Amino acid sequence: MADETWTEADGRRQSDQAIFDEVLRLIAQADRLVLLDMFLFNDFGATAEDSFRPLSRELTQALIRRKDAVPSLTAVVITDPINTVYGGLSSSHLKALSEAGIKVVMTDLPRMRASNPAWSGFWQLCCRVFGNTNDAGWLPNAFGDGRVSLRSYLQMLNFSANHRKILVVDEGEQWTGLVTSANPHDASSHHDNVALRFSGPAALDLLDSERAVADFSGAAGAIPAPTETIFSDAKREPARQAQETSPYQEQVQVQAQVQVLTESGIRDSLLEAVAGSAPGDRLDIAVFYLAHRELIEAVKAAKARGVRVRVLLDPNRDAFGLKKNGIPNRPVGRELHSAGVPVRWCDTHGEQCHAKMLLLRPLEGPAELIVGSANFTRRNLDDLNLETSVRLLASTGQPAIAAAGAFFEREWRNPIGRRYSLPYTHFADPSWRRYWQYRLMEATGLSTF
Fold first, then answer.
1. For residue range 121-130, what is the model confidence (pLDDT) as tens digits?
2. How many other CB atoms sit within 10 Å of the CB of residue 13?
3. Does the N terminus or the C terminus of the chain have fewer Cβ atoms within 10 A?
4. Is the entire prediction scored with pTM above 0.85?
C-alpha cells in the first residue's frame, strides 16, 4: 500500500491515501488483540486552518470504539516519548486511550544505546535523575503548541527514538501484521509513505519483537505470551460491529515468503540484496534519508557491475514549515550521480517523500521487497534507534511486488497530468562543505537523521 502526493498539470496538489484506511479497518474487526507501535502519535504542528487529515484523532477514536465494543480485547499502544516532548507535555490522545482501558507503554529510551554519545553520557550524569514534569514548562514546544521545560530539550539532544511503525491484530482465525513508514501524525498526513500487510506466522514474529520493547519499558506481561489462551483456536464471540472486507485482500494465492527485520537486521538484508544483484537486474530505491556509508558504496558497486539502479530521494528541504539545507540526501545524491547512478528528487511542497523502500527485480529468481520504518542511515540501521521493516520474497507477478513496482514507476516517470519527481539537476548540490558536514554528522551521531 502507498500514500502519494503529486502536482496536477494545473498546479493543484493532490493526495491519495490508503495506509491508515487499512489500519482503521483492521482495528475495527479485531476481537482478541490490537498491538500498535507508532513513533509519532500526535497533532503537533497542525492547526484548524490546515488541510491535514486528523490521523491521531481518528486512530484514538478507532481504538476506543473497538475496546468499548469488545471489552475483553487486549489493546496495547507502544510509542515514543517525543509525543509528550519527553515528559514536558501531557498527551490528550494517550490519556484518552489509558482512560478507556488501553495499555499505553512509553518506550524507555535510556535503556537503548547512545545515539549521540558526545551528549548522552553527560546527560545521564547531570540531568536524567531529575525526570521531567508537564506542568512547569516555560520554553516553547519545538513541535507545536504549549510550553515545555528545559529538561525536555536536554533529553531531546540524545537523538534516540523508538522509530517503529507497526500493527498486529487478529483477523478471523489468522494473525495479521502491518509494517509501514507512515505515522499517525496529522502534519505528516500528506507525506508519501509505503506499507506491507501480511498474515501468518510472520505476524507473530512481529508480536515477539514488540514484546521485548514492552518488557524493557516496564510493561512486562502487557503483550500476551504465545502460551496464553488468546492464541488458541477456540471459537470467539461474534463481534458487535459489522466487519468490512479489505479492498486489498487478494483472491489469488501466490507463493511468497515474509521475514520481519529489526534494527541491524534491516541493514544486513539491504546490503545482502544490493550485493547479490547481478548485471541486468533492476534495483529501485525510494527513501527519505540515504546516508549509510556501507550501503552507498554497495549501490555504487552494483551500478559499476551492470545493475540497472535508480534512486529516488527526498530533497530534504521541508520539515513541518521549516526549511532544511538538503543534508544528507543532496550530498549523497551528488556522490551517486557522479558514479553514474540515475537520481531523481521527489517534488515536495511542504510534505516529505517519507517512503523507505528497496525493490530488487532480478533477471532470474524471486523479487525482493524491503519496506518499513528504517531510513537508510547509521542511526536507523546500526542498532541505535528501534526500527522495524519487513522483507518479502516473491515472484514479480505477486500483487505486493507488482504494486511496489507500479508505485516506483509513477514516482519516477510522472504519468501524464501528474508530477511526482524532478530531475537530478533541480537540486544538484556541488558544495564540498555540505558533503563533509554530512559525513561528520553521520559518523558522530550529531544529527537528527
1. 889 888 888 8
2. 14
3. C
4. yes
